[in-house]
Automatic annotation (TrEMBL), chain A:
PANTHER family: ACETYL-COA C-ACETYLTRANSFERASE, NON-SPECIFIC LIPID-TRANSFER PROTEIN-LIKE 2. Residues 4-223 form the Thiolase N-terminal domain. GO terms for molecular function: acyltransferase activity, transferring groups other than amino-acyl groups. Keywords: Isoprene biosynthesis, Transferase. It comes from Natronorubrum texcoconense. One of its GO terms (biological process) is isoprenoid biosynthetic process. This is Acetyl-CoA C-acetyltransferase. Pfam families: Thiolase_C_1, Thiolase_N. Residues 241-383 form the Thiolase C-terminal domain. The lineage of its organism: Archaea, Methanobacteriati, Methanobacteriota, Stenosarchaea group, Halobacteria.
UniProtKB/TrEMBL annotation, chain B:
This is DUF35 domain-containing protein. The lineage of its organism: Archaea, Methanobacteriati, Methanobacteriota, Stenosarchaea group, Halobacteria. InterPro entries: NA-bd_OB-fold (IPR012340). Residues 1-29, 99-119 are annotated as: Disordered. It comes from Natronorubrum texcoconense. Residues 1-10 have a biased composition (Basic and acidic residues).
Length: 386, 119
């Protein structure tokens, strides 16, 4: 099996991109990634597009082929990867498979979504359409699942409500230094705790925004990477897993089985364990998810992640394990199909030393991309080549 | 109308039912949960609801005890005066949300069901 390297990365400005649609965003990130990696479009053999719902959001389907044309990357093989909010992570897995298997010597992955032209209710409904009919007819949304789970977590583990606000404060602070983030504004705990209730006990600042944006990565075999650069990243472990489609059927509402299982697989493939991870991007679509992933990935015992956050363990500049140095989905934004790719972009930039003011000392990084409410999860571990 | 759960060969019960249960066990019978009361495991009140959904929308996850076998369900509550640990019972409603107002094809599923009311 080929060792798979990442030799280039890009992301567009995340936020409200008025007048620009999914193809514009995908093309922008794709062109930037080609330039960043120094790869000619004609040399791209596989082109993967991570996207959840361009058909539902704007009536545009067939985006991979359209992107191949826009980038002049024909006759590259193209494929759309939809795994709801984890489409980006699933795209990294698909792109990794294409290179590791020997099927492609140069694979471009572009993730993107256009969402902000819809109302919050409409966008929330598109996302909630992933639910089972018995869930959907109750009007449940992904934020509602977060509220249900957060209440259970706080009550069961006697965790203070403030600990969730600390996640929001940390990630907003990190986002200030990310020029592509949707929100580059610090908040304080009081602001988070007094913001409007969205899904009790969670409030506005416990949730990521609705976002337009795109991100891209260039993958190839390690021996090919060395023809382009000596400063690249290797994917040392990657795995994906699922949990129940119906969320209430999980034996323990505070355990995301997909996180646990994909984490196990990625650790096993890489030979690394939780203690070896220097920096992590977790899927903080809701603040409570940062706790659940920290615990599922072995960074904290069950019911204890909130204590580490309170102790500053996950702070960027002073913590032992900086989490969401990019600002996370919370601050950077969450264009569904792009988010998992953008997590990979952040870890890539950290490992090659291109994270600017966000830079931490890291040789090994992890990203965890969650689809649905933990329904499907991809965990990726990367390491610096040097 | 029933609130139909499924029992599998291994004795476990799920709501909703699936073509296969834990360990690949096959369904053996259905159980009407509307005849049972349940305990609230957790709850939330959603203030930002999708098209066709009441606002605010208080939701609960409840746990039934069916002859010693537990089975959970999600549903709307009849009131926002609800707490974890409350005992609730299912109350039939002929339309939980407005069919066709959201993205899902109205004919693809049913829209009636049960809300949970504190006993």
């Amino acid at each position: 099996m080929e060792r798979v390297a990442i030799i280039g990365a890009s992301m567009t400005q995340f936020g409200q991109r008025e007048g620009e649609w999914v193809m514009d965003l995908l093309a922008e990130a794709g062109i930037d990634c080609l330039e960043d990696s120094g790869v000619d479009a004609a040399d791209v053999e596989h082109l993967y597009v991570s996207n959840m719902a361009s058909g539902e959001f704007e009536g545009q389907t067939g985006v991979p082929n359209a992107l191949a044309h826009d980038l002049d990357a024909m006759p590259a093989y193209t494929q759309r990867v939809d795994q709801t909010s984890s489409s980006g992570g699933a795209g990294i897995f698909a792109a990794w498979q294409s290179v590791a298997s020997g099927a492609s010597d140069m694979t471009l992955l572009v993730g993107g979504e256009k969402m902000t032209h819809k109302t919050t209710g409409e966008a929330t409904d598109v996302i909630a359409s992933l639910t089972h009919p018995v869930e959907y007819k109750t009007g449940v949304t992904l934020p509602s699942f977060a509220g249900l789970t957060a209440r259970h977590y706080l009550e069961r583990f006697d965790a203070p409500r403030d600990s969730l606000a600390k996640v929001a404060v940390k990630n907003h602070k990190n986002g200030v230094d990310n020029p592509h983030a949707q929100f580059r504004k610090e908040i304080d705990e009081e602001t988070a705790l007094e913001s409007p209730i969205v899904a009790d006990p969670l409030r506005l600042y416990d949730f990521c925004p609705i976002t337009d944006g795109s991100a891209a990565l260039m993958l190839c075999p390690e021996d090919v990477a060395q023809e382009y650069t000596d400063n690249y990243v290797v994917i040392s472990g990657i795995d994906g897993a699922t949990d129940t489609h119906v969320v209430h059927e999980r034996e323990d509402p505070t355990v995301m089985g997909g996180v646990v299982e994909s984490g196990k697989g990625a650790y096993e493939m890489s030979g690394y364990g939780p203690d070896d991870i220097d920096v992590a991007e977790l899927h903080d679509m809701f603040t409570i998810l940062e706790f659940l992933q920290m615990e599922g990935l072995g960074f904290a015992e069950q019911g204890e992640a909130w204590k580490l956050v309170e102790e500053g363990y996950t702070e960027r500049d002073t913590g032992e394990l900086p989490i969401n140095t990019s600002g996370g989905l919370k601050s950077k934004g969450h264009p569904l199909g792009a988010s998992g790719v953008a997590q990979g972009v952040e870890i890539y930039e950290q490992l090659v030393g291109e994270a600017g003011p966000r830079q931490v000392d890291a040789d090994v990084g992890l990203c965890c991309n969650v689809g649905g409410f933990g329904n499907c999860v991809i965990t990726t571990i990367m390491e610096a080549a040097q | 109308m029933t609130m139909e759960a499924t029992r599998y060969e291994d004795g476990s019960i799920s709501y909703p039912g699936h073509p296969r249960g834990p360990g690949g066990s096959e369904p053996v019978e259905t159980i009407d949960l509307s005849e049972y009361s349940a305990e609230v495991i957790t709850w939330t009140t959603s203030m930002a609801t999708p098209p066709g959904v009441r606002e605010p929308n208080t939701l609960v996850i409840v746990e039934f005890d069916v002859e010693g076998e537990s089975v959970r369900a999600i549903g709307q509550a009849t009131t926002d005066e609800i707490e974890t640990g409350d005992e609730v019972e299912p109350v039939y409603v002929d339309e939980l949300r407005e069919p066709g107002a959201g993205i899902r094809e109205p004919e693809s599923q049913d829209w009636d069901g049960y809300r949970f009311e504190p006993v």
